[in-house]
Amino acid sequence: MSLAVMATSDKKELEDLLHNGNSRFTANMFSEVSKTNPKKSFVLSAYSVMTPLAQLGLASVGESHDELLNAIGLPNDNVTREVFSMVNTKLRAVKDVTLKVASKIYVAKGFELNSEFVAVTRDTFDSEVQNLDFNQKQNAANEVNTWVEDHTNKRIKDLVDPDSLSDDTRALLVNAIYFKGLWDAQFDKALTREKDFHVTKNDKIKVSMMNRRGDYKYTESAALKSQVIEIPYKGHEASLVIVLPLKIEDIDEVQEMLKEPTLLDKALSEMYEVEVDLSIPRFKIETTTDLKDILTKMNVKKMFSPAEARLDNLLKNVKDSLYIASAIQKAFIEVNEEGAEAAAANVFTAINRSLSGRKQRTRFTADHPFVYFLYEGNNIIFNGVYYS
């Protein structure tokens, strides 16, 4: 019995490390992406960026290694391996929604991965490894892009630009995540209406608003100056959380406040079930993010510097210094009457809650800019802002 208790405790500790690390990394990344997309809709998956960062952390040494693990909130290599091994097991077990995560490392022809890193990346991240001739730039890009399309239900296309490849390209770390879920209670398409959406106090446009009355977890957060609602998908393992500012003009302040992830956690813990007249826009967003720019602003810098990257454990028999020359994410989300679909893919190029009994009806009308979060369990896997 004591062994079982220890195992459960260890699992809980790993889950807490993942939740805390993912929440803070997501909040930091969201803040920086918000600044590069002012007054614009966007979607990102910070969750899926953590995998290549963890891989690079395990492939690096010295200060670069410490910087990478610190960014994702994990204390050492052993814990990193345990957390991501647990993540892959958890994601494969999610029921009633489609959630796929895939990882692949392409290595330049004539080179091979360090054998220890091969074992780690296969056992921990379930990564595939393949040699590729980067001198054949168009063919190499086509090969990678086809793999990404196949793992994102064709939602992410042209992730790798052939011109980003060169004779100096030694490896590509590619990661893809795909989600599709049906609402636990779907919206009736017959009730969808064209309504005003107030982009600002003085600027409005028409959007398709979906409408439904039903029981939802809800709260009004004084700390976030927002209404917060959770809309579950079938199986109740995944959900969409919307943070809607009480005032149209407060969206920038709310985004700034969400830099502190505990505020959102607190709001979720204060939710109670109530009947809601719910009205939210039908939307589709696609975003390309320059992760090199964003991560540098998040103080993840050394892996992009030839002098400081120290990716010593990535490849065998490489004399020149390896470093990350570019890092790109393409992300997609669609929310409609049936449910939601979301996908993201990253490429890193290496070159030399509590409920109360309250029962009342409330109104949640998302007719002005809001922040949204797609959760699996208690982990954010996608988030962004909707501006119309």
- CATH classification, class level of the largest domain: Alpha Beta
Q: What would CATH call the homologous superfamily of the largest domain?
A: Antithrombin, subunit I, domain 2
Overall mean pLDDT: 91
How many angstroms separate the termini? 55 Å
- Beta-strand portion reads 35-45%
Largest sheet: 9 strands, mixed
GO cellular component, one term: extracellular space
Family: Belongs to the serpin family.
Domain Serpin: 27-388
Protein name: Jg10211 protein
Notes on the structure:
By secondary structure, the chain is an alpha+beta fold. The protein is built from nine helices and 15 strands. Strands 1, 5, 6, 7, 8, 9, 13, 14 and 15 form a nine-stranded mixed β-sheet that branches. The chain has a six-stranded mixed β-sheet with strand order 3-2-4-12-11-10, sandwiched between helices. The model is unreliable at 1-9 and 353-357 (pLDDT under 50).
List keywords for this structure.
alpha+beta, 2 domains, 32% helix, 388 residues, 6-stranded mixed beta sheet, Alpha-1-antitrypsin, domain 1, serine-type endopeptidase inhibitor activity, disordered N terminus, single chain, serine protease inhibitor, Antithrombin, Chain I, domain 2
List the helices and strands and how they pair.
Elements: H1 2-36, E1 42-44, H2 46-59, H3 62-71, H4 77-92, E2 98-108, H5 115-125, E3 128-132, H6 137-151, E4 169-182, E5 193-198, E6 204-221, E7 226-232, E8 238-245, H7 251-257, H8 261-269, E9 272-281, E10 283-290, H9 291-297, E11 323-335, E12 339-351, E13 361-365, E14 370-376, E15 379-386
Parallel strand pairs: 2-3, 9-13
Antiparallel strand pairs: 1-15, 2-4, 4-12, 5-6, 6-7, 6-9, 7-8, 8-14, 10-11, 11-12, 14-15
